[in-house]
Amino acid sequence: MEFEQEKLDKIVQQNFYFDIGKKIGLLALAVLAFLYIRKKLKKLFSSLGKILPTSLSRSGLSPATGYSGQPVEQQDEEILPIMAGNRKPRLLDQMQMTAKGK
């Protein structure tokens, strides 16, 4: 009876250590996956950073300027919300006005 109890205790202890080892292995795998994904995302964003300024410079804008072409510091209060009264007529509006003869 005592021999069987020692066997059961040994089996329980082995299962306990196996569970701990499995959890440590999964944690290590998660850390490695995180580091790998972080490295790939860093590489992706750095390549996008190299592409983006060249496409902005082709359009006459630089990263330090906004879409209005003015430096970011000078754009604070100059942006007006688009409302029916202050928006520019779109192509469809212009076509309708031309068709009506106005």
Kindly describe this structure.
The chain is mostly helical. 66% of the residues lie in helices and 0% in strands. It is built from two helices and no strands. The longest helix is centred in the first third of the chain and has 57 residues. The mean pLDDT is 76.
Q: What's the average pLDDT?
A: 76
Structural class: mainly alpha
Distance between the termini: 106 Å
Instruction: Tell me the fraction of residues in β-strands, as a range.
Output: under 5%
Q: What pattern of helices and strands is seen along the backbone?
A: HH
Major pleated sheet: none
Give the tally of β-strands.
0
Number of helices: 2
What is the structure about, briefly put?
With 102 residues, this protein is an all-alpha fold.
Per-chain topology:
Elements: H1 2-58, H2 91-100
Keywords:
102 residues; mainly alpha; 2 helices; single chain
